[in-house]
Amino acid sequence: MTKKIIIVGGVAGGATAAARxxxxxxxxxxxxxxxxxxxxxxxxxxxxxxxETIKDRxxxxxxxxxxxSDRFNLDIRNLSExxxxxxxNKNVTIxxxxxxxxxxxxxxxxxxxxxxxxxxxxxxxxxENITLFTLRNIPDTDKIKNHVxxxxxxxxxxxxxxxxxxxxxxxxxxRGMEVTLIxxxxxxxxxxxxxMAAILHAHLKEKGVQLILENGVQSFADQGNKVILSDGTEIxxxxxxxxxGVRPENELAKTAGLELGERGxxxxxxFLQTSNEDIYAVGDAVEVVxxxxxxxxxxxxxxxxxxxxxxxxxxxxxxxxxxxxTLGTSIAKVFDLTVAATGNNEKTLKRLGVSYExxxxxxxxxxxxxxxxxxxxxKLIFNKETGKIFGAQAVGSDGxxxxxxxxxxxxxxxxxxxxxxxxxxSYAPPFSSAKDPVNMAGYVATNIMEGEIxxxxxxxxxxxxxxxxxxxxxxxxxxxxxxxxxxxxxISLNDLRNKLTEIPIDKTVYVSCQxxxxxxxxxxxLKNNGYHVKNVDGGWKTxxxxxxxxxxxxxxxxxxxxxxxxxxxxxxxxxKVDSVVDVSGxxxxxxxxKLKKGIDSLKSGQVIELHVTDRGALNDLPAWTKNAxxxxxxxxxxxxxxxFWIKKK
Length: 649
What we know:
The chain is α/β, with parallel strands linked by helices. The protein is about 25% helix and about 25% strand. The strands form 11 sheets. Strands 5-2-1-9-21 form a 5-stranded parallel β-sheet, covered by helices on one side. It has a 5-stranded parallel β-sheet with strand order 11-18-12-13-14. A 5-stranded antiparallel β-sheet has the order 24-25-28-27-26, with helices on both faces. A hairpin with a 4-residue loop joins strand 16 (about 225-230) and strand 17. The termini are far apart. The model is unreliable at about 555-570 (pLDDT under 50).
């Protein structure tokens, strides 16, 4: 029977395991060795303390060494480091970092939870950079916050567009800094695909962040005050955050002869045992099995680390509980937007050679007639033959989290896209719609499986049109004033049946609309009349999120003190409003139709006040207004609601 367990490392995996072990047995001796001062802290909250959203530092400390030791009767040795493991004699060598004492400690079972450290490449000038920071723990947080508080930096450069990079961009911007975000890839947020990330790219720019993609840091100069990029661009900065990823802390495991994976992760079996049956490992340092593909992966997330800690504790005490793999469900706040993902993305499936189908929908977060509804961009990836859900992604200002959690749960439960249509989810107007976005994604995917609709994706459109393909935009003519796919012709959905004779029946017809719904209806009309037809998945909304609008965008914008986009063409102190049009939460084409009607009802020089919740208006409306000869007098953003004051020409 296990009598003594040593845990190397606290925080999510180690601290969770320690508490679980004590709940299982009052007799087992538990020694927790932590190199740092703090054994359990909210590392996911660190950026928000720097940004002062979290004001009380003590709230970051989930448990103190004394508090946890007293409650769970643990032998906690913080500020101590395990130097080596003697697997043959089952003991470890520990160094007390406070007094330098080195000693040995025996174990029956050993748990490794060392975590992962930030990657710091050998960039020229890095050693002389006195304002370079990484963010992993409380001391890192204190260094960054002290620098911001006492040196009042005006400019910050963030290298890396992952979770930490994005969250630091927002929090440093909230502290009043000019932020430049540099990412080597063509997009930020690797768990999502490019067209979804493009929504975030536009939003970061709205918030005043300078976004530099497909570029890297070549060197630092002037003690870090100058960042020189791969293309020779030079950027002045008062501080730099390096957040290009993490590397597993595998030194102990490596010197102990434990098996490591290709990317350095500690190899464990389904019971979280390493290649030595008496040594277990959990958290960011271990190589996990991708729940979707079954392949080996490194997925450093807090939720899985906590779950692994509990399972490892159970198994060290004699149980045989299996870790089922990591799904990779993740979420982040990006200023006013939420981005979330679960399962595999397209990039991963392509790399693995897996056949898949994709749907994009743009539903509202809740019933459109109830105030505050905001659009969600939701992407579902699935197997067209079996309906198996491979993954999902979503971006929006409201309701993203619960949709992603439902789909993640569906994946774990083995549900198919058809099963999504049968989910009975909670509904009331302030919270959802009678057909929840998850149901809607299931309906569209099921239609594809049953052959009711064929689709093309946003990245296929331009080539099809350039090769002579017929693309019919079935939106109302007024909607095209806000942008359209070049080369498309316009036949509105309501006119389609009357104009069938104008459409050649001997070639494939492609249809598009604003978000895909009217395109689906058009495709059914055409198919039932003998046409071979394909719909542009996600419509103009998905296409334009990547390519932008083709209407004149020569509109100057700036950001206010809150980092919000302002579009002001004519300064005025007092605005007399002649009409108010509220299109917040409405589905297309009603926002554009109601705005056009509202403008048409005014006399020259009169002012309309427009309320919207679709953030796309920040890009589309100024261009349309300028093209039409009207003038935007002012803009305001209040939470999800955006207000425009427009003077008629």
